[in-house]
Design brief:
With about 425 residues, the protein is of the alpha/beta class. Helices cover about 20% and strands about 20% of the residues. It is built from 11 helices and 18 strands. The longest helix has 15 residues. It is elongated. One of its GO terms (molecular function) is magnesium ion binding.
Length: about 425
Amino acid sequence: MFADRAKIFIRSGKGGDGHVSFRRELYVPNGGPDGGDGGRGGDVIFEVDEGLNTLQDYRHRRKYAANDGEQGGKRRCHGADADDIVLKVPEGTVIKEAESGKVIADMSGDNKRQVVLKGGKGGLGNQHFATATMQIPKYAQPGQPSQELWVNLELKVIADVGLIGFPNVGKSTFLSRVTNARPKIANYHFTTLNPNLGVVDLDGAQGFVIADIPGLIEGASEGVGLGHEFLRHIERTKMMIHVVDAAGSEGRSPVEDVYKINAELEAYNPDIAKRPQVIAANKTDLIYSGDSEDPVKLLKEEFEPKGIRVFAISGATGDGISELLYYVSEQLGKLDRSPVIFEQEYFPENELIYENLPYTVEKEDDMYVVEGPKIEKMLGYTNLDSEKGFAFFQKFLKDSGILDELEEAGIQEGDTVRMYGLQFDYYK
C-alpha cells in the first residue's frame, strides 16, 4: 500500500554530565579539580533517500531516539559523543510539528539533509569552575537535556503538472500514453489509490514531470473519500491538466464536472485553484456524430472565454495529445519552474526551551541558589561568554519570573546567585 503520511516520536540524545573529581597522585595529596566534560548527545537528522517513494517504513515503527552522550571522567577525560540517528525519507517529505501543524522542514529542492533535533551539549567538568576564591569546586555542569517531539510526515509529490478530474475519466490511460509511467488501469468507479509520476519528453521543447493525482470526488476538500490525502499532492504543481469525460460515458455533464472539481480545489486551498489550468476533453473517440450537442464545443464556449484552453483528445487513440503537451510545455516556460518549497514555521531549538519546567529559588548561607530542569536546559543552550548569549540569559531570568522570585526572597544588590556551576552578583 502507498503510504504518504505517518506520525512518529523523535528524541535527541541528552548531553553527558560533567564530572567532579580531584587529582590524587603520589606527592600530590591535594591536587586541583580534574573532572572531564560530558559528551554531546546524538542529533536527529532527516535525509533524502532517492530510492524511497513512500513513508511505509514509518507505519511500522513510531519511536526514534538518538543515544545520550557519555559522562565525563577523571583526569580531564572527555566523555564520548553519541552517534546521530539518521532517518531516511523520500524527496518531497514535509515534516510538521504534530500539535500545531507548523512546518519544521521540507525535504525538497536543495534540502537533502537537515538536523531537526539537536543533541544536548555535554556539561562542563569541575575543572572549569576553579577560581582564586573557589579552588575546590564540588559541582559540575549537567549535560544539556534532550529534545523530543511528535511530528507528522507528509509526502507531497514533486511534479510540474498535476492531472486532476473525477475517477474513471481516463487520467491513468493518458499518463501511460504520454510518459514512461505504467499505472494500473481498470474501469474503477472509486479511484486509483496511488499518485503516479511520469516524465514527458518532447522533441524540440522543454519536458516536464506530470503526476496523476488520484481521482477526486465531491466532498474531497472535507476529507470525503480520502480527499485530503489526495489533494496534498497538488500543492507543489505549477499548473493542472483537468481531464474530463467528454463523451459523458459515466452519465455526467463534463461542464459540471469541471466546476465541481474546481470548487473542491477552492475549498481546500484558494491559491491552488488560481493556478493555470488546461482542459483535456478525453474519450472523444466515443462521441457519436449524431449527438445533438458537441460536448467539446460546449466546453470551449464555457471555459475558453475564462482563459482556460480546451483540447479534444483521446487517451485510447492518442488523437490531440501532442498538441496539448506542447501547449502545456509552452505555458510552463512562462512560469517559475523552481520547486514549491514550504518555508520553516516551527523552530524546535527556540520553541522547546520555553517549556513549562519547574525550578526552585532558595537561600543557602550567604547566597541565593536557583535550580531545576528549567535552569539546566537554559544553561545548556546558552553561551554566556557572548554578548548575545548573555542578553538572552538576562531576558530569560526576567520572562520566566526568576528575578521576581529572587526579590521576593529578599535579595539585595551585590548578593551572590548560584545556578549550578554559574555564580554571579545580583544588580538591577
